[in-house]
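Input record, target 12 of the design panel.
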């Protein structure tokens, strides 16, 4: 009897060892490469102030798909076009959620917007509203007059400053902010610097709030990665998020109150004129799949105003910086403009298809300077095998598009700014070509990309068509720094400052 129990025990042990070793072998086979993590901090010690560049260097060692620990949480980074395709196309649905972050909680009304909302009915409904009500080609065409008016303003402001030092980004942001505010909120809602303060905020205040929002939405907040020290707020980011949220909330309350008052005054005859009107109508709709409350309306306003402003302005500022480093490219661009447009009018959106060199400049800019260098983080909704590796539910995924834009296997001489590489090529930025993904791809792809392309095309074309560009007297081409600052958008560290002089007959600037 005793020997039988010993035998059974030995057999049970053997089976357990066999099962364990099989489990361990399987597990090891599917473990992603990556640096060995430290307790508690994981690999955060390897991430510098420009995380996309740190990850780019690490990918050279660990490959196109690697796993790290940010604090206690697992992060997977895709650094090649093939791996980007795996996450954004092959397994798009599994990776269509967002991680939980303090930024989502404190700056977007507890995930009540589209950008940070987890995958699900609320997010799906929000995206559908954007795509049908705002970004359909009919709706975008109906707002062309706004883009034209704001372009005229930009040109006349720059003309008035001819011969003086101009910080280009300030003017570009003002133009995109004005366009998006007018489309979404119905008017600008900020007082122009030249005018008396009649609105609830001044332009500079509003721009500062949006800059802070972008920065705080992109930072690596330690509490997100080591949740049990979250309450300490070691970097002070959560405090800043709460302060910002209060300011933004006051602004959104004011916008909603004004819209409600107009709606009540008009009674039954009321017709929705802008996105806020429409959202207020939808909030009263009992048939809506998921109810939208006032936090939702504010979250949506913010998505659009913030998402639409700095991104486009930053891209055009990068484009002008690259061009000013190589003046012969400006010459090529203006030759195209002179030939197609002539010198007696401005460039309109309908001219874009006839301006392939301009399109190539924008693509080349977005290759080297994608504003969302790691896209927005994606999160795995369930366990999934990607390229033979196991990725577990809850893992955060970053797609390093900055790295993909510099992949020597795809791009010849990748560090060189060379718009010609796109001439005669079908590669575009609409999420079908995984080597060029400034707007992402798949379910979470930027819904505003068509508007962005129109705003950027029009600003860049007319800046080149309307002005000659010179550096300040004490500056040489080599002095134009290409350093970046990391955030949800990655702008220039040192704003581009230049001197303009008019290129076209003077009556066109009036
Ligand atoms: C150059 C301009 C722009 C760039 C480079 C850009 C880029 C991006 C990127 C990379 C994403 C995340 C994609 C992902 O998670 O995989 C995104 C999302 C988003 N963008 Fe843009 N964007 C731009 C302009 C705009 C504009 C003009 C708007 C609206 C007015 C906008 C609204 C949004 C929204 C709402 C999302 C969240 C989508 C979601 O999570 O489902 N963006 N954008």
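The sequence produced for target 12 reads:
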């Amino acid at each position: 009897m005793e020997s039988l129990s010993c035998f059974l025990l030995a057999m049970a042990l053997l089976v357990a060892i066999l099962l364990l070793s099989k489990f361990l072998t399987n597990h090891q086979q599917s473990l992603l490469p990556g640096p060995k993590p430290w307790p508690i901090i994981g690999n955060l010690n390897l991430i510098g102030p420009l995380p996309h560049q740190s990850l780019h260097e690490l990918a050279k060692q660990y490959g196109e798909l690697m796993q790290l620990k940010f604090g206690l949480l697992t992060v997977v980074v895709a650094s090649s076009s093939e791996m980007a395709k795996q996450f954004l196309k092959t397994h798009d649905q599994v990776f269509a959620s967002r991680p939980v972050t303090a930024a989502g909680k404190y700056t977007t009304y507890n995930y009540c917007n589209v950008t940070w909302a987890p995958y699900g009915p609320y997010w799906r409904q929000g995206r559908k509203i954007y795509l049908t009500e705002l970004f359909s080609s009919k709706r975008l065409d109906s707002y062309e007059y706004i883009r034209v008016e704001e372009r005229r303003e930009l040109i006349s402001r720059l003309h008035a400053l001819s011969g003086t030092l101009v910080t280009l980004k300030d003017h570009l942001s003002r133009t995109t902010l004005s366009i998006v505010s007018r489309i979404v909120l119905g008017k600008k809602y900020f007082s122009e610097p030249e005018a008396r303060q009649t609105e609830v905020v001044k332009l500079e205040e509003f721009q500062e709030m949006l800059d802070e929002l972008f920065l705080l939405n992109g930072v690596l907040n330690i509490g997100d990665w080591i949740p049990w020290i979250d309450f300490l707020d070691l970097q002070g980011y959560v405090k800043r998020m709460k302060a910002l949220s209060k300011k933004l909330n006051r602004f959104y309350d004011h916008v909603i109150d004004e819209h409600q008052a107009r709606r009540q005054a008009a009674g039954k005859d009321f017709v929705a004129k802008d996105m806020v009107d429409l959202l207020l109508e939808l909030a009263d709709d009992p048939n809506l799949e998921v109810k939208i409350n006032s936090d939702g309306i504010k979250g949506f306003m913010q998505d659009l105003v913030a998402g639409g402003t700095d991104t486009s302005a930053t891209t055009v500022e990068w484009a002008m910086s690259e061009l000013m480093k190589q003046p012969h490219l400006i010459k090529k661009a203006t030759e195209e403009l002179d030939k197609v447009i002539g010198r007696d009018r401005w460039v309109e959106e309908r001219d874009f298809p006839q301006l392939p060199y301009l399109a190539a400049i924008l693509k080349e800019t977005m290759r080297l300077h994608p504003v969302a260098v790691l896209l927005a983080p994606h999160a795995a909704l369930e366990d999934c095998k990607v390229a033979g590796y196991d990725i577990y539910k809850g893992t955060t995924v970053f797609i390093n598009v900055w790295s993909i834009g510099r992949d020597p296997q795809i791009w010849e001489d990748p560090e060189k700014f060379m718009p010609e590489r796109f001439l005669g090529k079908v590669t575009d930025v609409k999420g079908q070509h995984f080597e060029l993904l400034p707007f992402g791809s798949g379910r979470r792809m930027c819904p505003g990309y068509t508007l962005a392309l129109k705003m950027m095309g029009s600003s860049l074309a007319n800046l080149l068509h309307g002005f000659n560009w010179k550096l300040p007297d004490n500056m040489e081409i080599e002095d134009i720094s290409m350093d970046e600052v990391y955030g949800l958008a990655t702008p220039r560290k040192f704003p581009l400052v230049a001197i303009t002089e008019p290129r076209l007959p003077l009556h066109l600037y009036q």
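The pocket of protoporphyrin IX containing FE is lined by residues 114-115, 127, 180, 303-304, 307-308, 311-312, 315, 371-372, 375-376, 438-440, 444-448, 451-452 (CB under 6 Å).
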